[in-house]
Amino acid sequence: MISTLPTSHRALTVPEVMAALHLSRFKVYDLIRTKQLPSFTVGRARRIPADALHTFMQHQLEEAA
């Protein structure tokens, strides 16, 4: 029996994060490099957990308030 992962366990590509945040590729990689946005690699492919993006956005909203 194969079960699908919940959508909260989705891994996003850098271009998907760029589109979601309306940021440049350089800025997304800068957020990853500075550990503000957690990510992992599989081979040469960089992935950002959707939960990590959500947490990042929540943290940014809390700081802005």
From TrEMBL:
Domain Helix-turn-helix: 12-60
One Pfam family from the record: HTH_17
Keyword Oxidoreductase annotated: no
UniProtKB keywords: DNA-binding
Highest taxon of source: Bacteria
Keyword Manganese: no
Molecular function terms from GO: DNA binding
NCBIfam families reported in the protein's UniProt record: excise (TIGR01764)
Protein name: DNA-binding protein
Organism, scientific name: Streptomyces ficellus
